Amino acid sequence: MFMKSFRRVIIAAVLIFSFPIWSFASNGGPTITINGSKLNLTGVIQNGQLLVPLEELIQALGGSYIWDPVVKTATISIPGLSWPPGSDLKDSCTIEVTKITEGISLLILTGEVKNTSPYQLTSITVYGKLLDEKGEELTRSFTYKLIPAQLLPGETGSFEIIFWDYNKYKDSNARYAVYVQGFSTEVN
User: Fold this and answer.
1) Which domains does the chain have, with CATH numbers?
2) What is the DSSP letter of 28?
3) What is the biggest distance separating any 2 CA atoms in the chain, rounded to whole angstroms?
4) 15, 68, 126, 188 - which has most CB atoms within 10 Å?
């Protein structure tokens, strides 16, 4: 008698907890739109996250998908997509650190950035990172003074980066890295 009651409770629990997924899937699931186009995918929401079959998503994006269950590997190809992101970008600036000022609690990097591209660079920000021995990022900072904030082809600007939290990392053999981020526009 106990086993029959126990089985009924288990079956009822499975039905109760499964009902929302069944009813959700039966009414069409969530709407997914990419670049303004509604996709017809069979997604569900579980634990607050949208789950969609990877194969359907890749095919909706115009790509191909191959699953190898033996080695548990998905091979994905999407036309026109370079991976990793940004791997198709070319360097458009040179950076030179001309002065390093080390204080008790801060580090200041001063230098020049030159636009080596044929485009005007706008909204430029020079970033600095402090890295540990393995190259892992410890902290990051950005330009406090960039003059000018836009560079025509061949122009040079000056920058200053201040690491305010340098005192946390100065005893850990930290090294710095500097990079530029901005937008390019054609020069008429």
Assistant:
1) 2-52 (no CATH), 62-88 (no CATH), 93-186 (2.60.40.10)
2) T
3) 88
4) 126
pLDDT one-digit tens code per residue, 27-80: 466 777 776 777 777 778 888 787 888 788 788 778 888 888 898 888 888 776
Q: Specify the pTM.
A: 0.50
**b/e string for 133-148 if b means 16 or more Cβ within 10 A?**
eeeeebeebebeebee
107 and 166 Cβ atoms separated by less than 8 Å: yes
- The per-residue pLDDT for range 136-153, each reduced to its tens digit, is 888 888 886 678 878 888
How far apart are alpha carbons 150 and 124 in whole angstroms?
6
Both tokens of residue 51?
């789950």
Query: In sequence order, which residues have a C-beta less than 8 Å from that of residue 68 and are 6 or more positions away?
Result: 74, 75
The tens digit of pLDDT for each residue in 177-186 reads 888 887 777 6
**Ordered alpha helix ranges (H), the chain:** 2-26, 54-60
- Cα 146 to Cα 95: distance, rounded to the nearest angstrom: 13
